[in-house]
Amino acid sequence: MGIFIDYAFHADCSERQLLERMRRLRRRLLTLPFDSVSQVLPVNPAYQPLLVELLPKHGYPLPAAVRRRVRGKLRTKHDELCFLAAPPVLMHVPDELLRRFYEPALEFCRTTTLWREDQLPEKLDVPYCLTYYRAAFALELASVMLRRGHLIVVRPCEGCETLAIGLTSFGTEGERCWLGSGFTKTQYATRFVEAHESICTALDFAREEGLLLAAEDTCDFYAHRDWSKSADVVNTETQFAHVMGGLIDLGVEQARKQGTATENLSSPATRHLNVIRVDEPPKRRRHAK
Question: How far apart, in whole angstroms, are the C-alpha atoms of residue 47 and residue 239?
Fold first, then answer.
């Protein structure tokens, strides 16, 4: 639901070559009307904070080598960089490429002496109806030890989600498989058309640098770059958000009348309702014969 742009990144190259491509890409991103473009940020190690924290919370101490790798990083801003560079799910990536990406980590799990897999929990149930199994914890410990990457964080404008261009790898030397993916919701951007078009252009730049694997958006603008073909989808989503926002406002007002304390966070979803208007071409006059 909503107006999103989904994307996946991939490269088979050395770390030096990846950095060269990402630095060239960053210079090109600076020519677009974004609010900010970060430096190319190192993310080392790259891991899922939730899984790493679950183990000690449930009485399973982290292996000593893992503790050393996350010391001073776990529960800091580094966790956010990990989430952007190494999201929990890699979207739009073919299965064969995923297998090749994870193979170094799986081999590490099979051969490591840093921990014993049978000392990890068979499974853990966590809030939000999630269950993690032993293999997931072993893979995450391998991520802490092996996975690293680089990230560019782009903030398009107020109300628009971050564009994160991040690639990570489990490889340790030479040419290796780098992957990344993510999505950006542009629906409530203060400069919706400009932000959406600029992100599409940024992904074009990434493709030209040999970093983009796939991209698409929920209004199909990325495919054809023609707002006249996407306006109906955008406007329908905007109308739905407006109706739902109105229902929420009614509920909040009713809660206030009953004495419930509320706080208005001025969400962009209630302040920026973007409607696409496309001028129709003039109709040709018919001449009587």
Answer: 39
Overall average pLDDT of the 249-254 stretch: 67
CB atoms within 10 A of CB 50: 14
Task: Give the burial class of 230: count Cβ atoms within 10 A of its Cβ; 0-12 exposed, 13-18 middle, 19 or more buried.
Answer: buried
Closest CA to 70 of 1, 143, 3: 143
* pLDDT over 70, % of the chain: 87
pLDDT score for 40: 98
Are 13 and 178 spatial neighbours (Cβ–Cβ below 8 Å)?
Answer: yes
pTM: 0.87
Give bridge partners of residue 180 from the DSSP assignment: 9
Would 278 be classed as within a structural domain?
A: no
Domain contains 280: no
What phi and psi, each to the nearest 5 degrees, are found at residue 165? Answer: -105, 95
* % of the chain at pLDDT higher than 90: 76
Looking at residue 289, its pLDDT comes to 47
In a domain, 287, yes or no: no
d(CA 278, CA 53): 50
